[in-house]
Amino acid sequence: MKLYLAPMEGLADESLRRVLTALSRYDLAVSEFVRVSTTVLPQRAFFRISPELGNGGRTRAGTPVQVQLMGSDPQMMARNAARLVQWSPAGVDLNFGCPAPLVNRHRGGAVLLDEPETLHAVAAAVRAAMPLGGPPLSAKMRLGVKDPRRAVECAQALADGGIERLVVHARTKLDGYRPPAHWPWVARIAEAVRIPVVANGEVWTVADWQRCRSESGVADVMLGRGAVVDPFLARDIRAARQWEAGDPRAGDWAALVPEIAAFWADVRGRLAPRHAPGRLKQWLNLLRRRFAQAEALYQCVRPVNDARQIDALLVARGIHPAARAA
Ligand SMILES: Cc1cc2nc3c(=O)[nH]c(=O)nc-3n(C[C@H](O)[C@H](O)[C@H](O)COP(=O)(O)O)c2cc1C
């Protein structure tokens, strides 16, 4: 049984990956996507998306981080993958799931699910450019563009192209992020390919994880937004402990507070002051779904756009980066 932390562009950046992988154990995390178009990217483009490349391809907690590439030109994808592997990422992942209109207009992400032959060409070219015995190659796909009719064909095209693992976000591009995730489709795909398949989509609780495993029939699950809403979800899944509705989990909140402070310090250090507050609010907004204590904190930082004022607000509430456990 493996648990993966999903790539989430604009949300699970290095700062959040660091915190989430420290609070719950993941077998692997996937970076946000590196957009590949018409050039071989410079080192800084890869390190910007995955600073973990400077740390042996791992988060500080030691979780291996795969770097995700997104693009449709097989040769460009291959040349960028060949460059990327120089820095020994924990793996290279190909994105065939992004539904963003801008990305899709440039023939990236989920729109390629209408072209299994392109999926195959990209996977095969990247595979050929990566050294044997080097970092593994994987891919992440949705079920299709408008409907899942070609989902199995797409999965087989990728597997035939030489990927070693496939994550299936069990929704179409048209579904966007609307529940439900169609986990039984993961089962159909897993039956049709010989590589390990990982189920993804709509796992928010331990009970969801149990249903996802039984409906998809696969052992391994990738957690996305559920891991951000509840940073202890993967831990609780491992313990197979059922989270009880209404449980304030005071101990968990106490453990989370110094990590929120560390996250804020990290974001403050990396981003311009005008961008930093948004990142903290974004996470607190999600945390408040699970932690009543986060609601109060969210409400107090929500109207504040000045990073220094947020520093002061947090310190006044005893939330200070120095409080982080070593
Ligand atoms: C804010 C956000 C950004 C995302 N960025 C990426 C990305 O860069 N690459 C990718 O393959 N999937 C991306 N996804 C999709 C997630 O990895 C995941 O497949 C999806 O959220 C479904 O899982 P969940 O229901 O557990 O959140 C993103 C999702 C969200 C919500």
Characterization of the model:
It is a single chain. The protein is α/β, with parallel strands linked by helices. It folds into two domains: 3-238, Alpha-Beta Barrel (TIM Barrel), CATH 3.20.20.70; 250-323, Bacteriocin As-48, Chain A, CATH 1.20.225. Helices cover 44% and strands 12% of the residues. The chain has helices at 14-23, 43-49, 74-84, 101-105, 116-129, 151-161, 183-192, 206-216, 225-229, 233-238, 250-270, 276-287, 292-301, 307-316, and strands at 3-5, 28-35, 65-70, 92-96, 137-141, 165-169, 197-200, 220-223. The protein has an eight-stranded parallel beta barrel, surrounded by seven helices. Helix 6 (151-161) links the parallel strand 5 and strand 6 (165-169). The longest helix has 21 residues, at 250-270. It is globular. The two termini are 29 Å apart. Mean pLDDT is 92; it is low at 241-246. The protein binds flavin mononucleotide. Flavin mononucleotide is lined by residues 6-11, 32-33, 68, 95, 97-98, 140, 169, 200-203, 223-226.
Pick out its properties.
eight-stranded parallel barrel; 326 residues; Bacteriocin As-48, Chain A; alpha/beta; TIM Barrel; 2 domains; 14 helices; binds flavin mononucleotide; single chain
Task: Describe what is shown at a glance.
This protein is of the alpha/beta class.
CATH architecture of the largest domain: Alpha-Beta Barrel
User: How many DSSP helices?
Assistant: 14
What is the strand arrangement across the widest sheet?
A: 1-2-3-4-5-6-7-8
Using only C-alpha atoms, the radius of gyration works out to 20 Å
Flag low-confidence runs: 241-246
Number of strands: 8
Strand percentage, roughly? 5-15%
Bound molecules: flavin mononucleotide
- Please identify the structural class as seen in this structure: alpha/beta
Overall geometry? globular
Q: Characterize the quaternary organization of these chains.
A: single chain
What number of structural domains do the residues give?
2
H/E element sequence:
EHEHEHEHHEHEHEHEHHHHHH
CATH superfamily of the largest domain: Aldolase class I
Mean pLDDT: 92
Helical amount: 40-55%
Under the CATH scheme, which class of the largest domain?
Alpha Beta
Biggest β-sheet description: 8 strands, parallel, barrel
